[in-house]
Amino acid sequence: MVRLELDQVVMRRMKEDDIEMVKALIKEGCEGTENRLILHILTRPLCLFILAVFSSILRCLVHSFILALAIPVFLLIIFLKITMPRSTGVLGSSRPYWDYVGSSYRGTEDETLQNPYCRISGKTSVTKKPRRRITPKDKDKDSSTENVTPEREQEAGQVWVADCDGDILGCIFRESEKRANIRRICRLVTGCWYRREGLGRLLVQSLEQRESEGGTRRVYAHVPYPSKLGEAFFRKLGYRQFEEGADEEEDDEEERKLETPERGFLGYPLTKVFYKDL
After folding, report:
1. What function does this protein fulfil (predicted)?
2. How far apart, in whole angstroms, are the C-alpha atoms of residue 23 and residue 171?
3. Domain membership flag for residue 83
4. What is the Cα–Cα distance from 97 to 115, expressed in whole angstroms?
5. Which of 10, 93, 107, 141 is the right S-S partner for 186, CB 3.0 to 4.6 Å?
6. CA distances (Å), origin 239, targets 15, 48, 222, 253, 277
7. Burial of 179 (0-12, 13-18, 19+ CB in 10 A)
8. 117 φ/ψ sector (left φ>0, alpha ψ -120 to 50, else beta)
9. Which has the closest alpha carbon to 188: 228, 217, 160?
10. How confident is the model at residue 256 (pLDDT cuts 50, 70, 90)?
């Protein structure tokens, strides 16, 4: 673990130069999530019953009892590995993929979130250019930027990164504004060396403050179903699980349909939906 000075963290919009670093951070932070989701589905009663039926049928064809048990499980795991990324996409997002280029910030000056720790310490954090090696391929990519229309940029959503001395330590994804005064957090990732330092809380609370000032009244967050850590994290920040003791009169029926948990094989939920009223 590395001691992190939160007053030195700058939370700004992601730029095109940050895309590869953000992708690497997500790959590192979400490692094992897909396997835990597959294990969650495999251990459901209905799934176990179906596997047992197929194993019984194979037992008539295959002389080995172990093979009759292993083949259905192996085939189902392959099926889930192939189909799950397409069905879940970015967990919590209504789209099967994330438009990184479209969600990149193109302004001349950085758009930042307020850091309350800077006011406490009296320090002013400064954003430095991210450190990365530029290869010939990178130069070609930089020279051929995509044409991003305002419509695409608005549809893509936003990605905010936690920058400290030019290094990206964490990021938070916010989906595009599809409903008035309602926002959705799609993904929250912090680097493995900077966990339990308050960085994730800082990202969420700073984004909440910005959205609240813009008139947002409710924020939703989708958490992978097997993630007990993610569930405990959002509960500590004041989030409640959707439909957990909520009155039917308070929640609009259309909103319930839009914020239903993502479902995978046999309709089993892959995410838990949490919300917080600002």
Report:
1. Probable acetyltransferase.
2. 10
3. no
4. 30
5. 93
6. 29, 33, 11, 20, 8
7. middle
8. alpha
9. 160
10. low
Tell me, yes or no, whether 82 lies in a domain. Answer: no
CA distances from 141 to 23, 136, 149 (A): 16, 9, 19
Assigned domain for 66 exists: no
- Give the DSSP H or E segment for 6: none
Q: For helices 45-61 and 33-42, what crossing angle results, to 10°?
A: 70
Contact predicate 187/26, CB 8 Å: yes
Tokens of 51: 């596997």
Q: What pLDDT score does 85 carry? A: 58
> How many residues comprise the chain?
278
> Around 229, how many Cα atoms within 13 Å sit in the side-chain half-sphere?
9
Domain total for the chain? Answer: 1
Q: Which residue has the tokens 């990164």?
A: 161
**Does residue 120 form part of some domain?**
yes
DSSP letter string over 247-278? -TTTS-HHHHHHTPPPB-GGG-B-EEEEEEE-
The CB-side HSE value for 14 (13 A sphere, CA atoms) comes to: 28
Q: What is the CATH number of the domain that holds 194?
A: 3.40.630.30
Among 93, 129, 97, which Cα is nearest to 18's?
129
Encoded tokens for 210: 């910005």
- The 10s digit of each residue's pLDDT in 176-200 is 877 788 888 888 888 888 788 888 8
CB-count burial class (<10 Å; 0-12, 13-18, 19+) for 42: middle
The whole domain housing 252 covers 6-33+89-277
